[in-house]
Amino acid sequence: MTVYLSSQTISVSIKRPAHEVYEFTYNMENFPQWVSFCQSIQKCEDSDAWMMETPYCTSEVRVAEKNTLGVLDHHSIPAPGVEICDAMRVIPNGDGCEVLLTGFQMPGMPDEKFSQVVAAGQQDLNNLKTILEGRN
Predict the structure, then answer these.
(1) Hey, CA dihedral for 114, 5, 82, 98, is it positive or negative?
(2) Most Cβ neighbours (<10 Å): which of 65, 91, 102, 132?
(3) Do the Cβ atoms of 55 and 35 come closer than 8 Å?
(4) What SS3 string covers the chain?
(5) How many CB atoms lie within 10 A of CB 85?
(6) How far are the Cα atoms of 2, 41, 49, 50 from residue 46, in angstroms, in the given order?
(7) CA atoms of 35 and 58, how far apart (whole Å)
């Protein structure tokens, strides 16, 4: 059986160099500053994973290996057997950049809930923009 998940891509333009945005976003310790549902995050010992506390659960999170292409994909495991992938990119645009985030509607997730998740993701990208454009 072939499974195809609905998806939506959101974006924000940030007036900061792409490499600065990538470095800030890649650093998982910065997550609580711009991701609304992240209450705290800690690096796991002996692993490349992080444990993130949210209002809903504790979730294991892994980010794509550091790279020069701006790829920041996040894989979250909020429960055994459940893996959520958010595809994320930082793309240079002149002196600034575009940050794109593609979210996937999980099987069984109602359309209304997916719309709420997408709206929260857009707010998180807006938070990222506010933080980074406010830096000197």
Answers:
(1) negative
(2) 132
(3) no
(4) CCCCCCEEEEEEEECCCHHHHHHHHHCHHHHHHHCCCCCEEEECCCCCCEEEECCCCEEEEEECCCCCCCECCEEEEEECCEEEEEEEEEEEECCEEEEEEEEECCCCCCHHHHHHHHHHHHHHHHHHHHHHHCCC
(5) 14
(6) 36, 16, 9, 11
(7) 15
Give per-residue pLDDT as tens, 33-77: 999 888 999 999 888 899 999 888 888 899 999 999 999 999 888
| Nearest alpha carbon to residue 121 among 70, 74, 81 | 74
Q: Which of 55, 32, 22, 28 is nearest to 44 (CA)?
A: 28
Residue 106's Cβ-side half-sphere holds a number of Cα atoms within 13 Å equal to: 12
Residue-wise pLDDT for 72-108, tens only, equals: 999 888 777 778 888 999 999 999 999 999 999 988 8
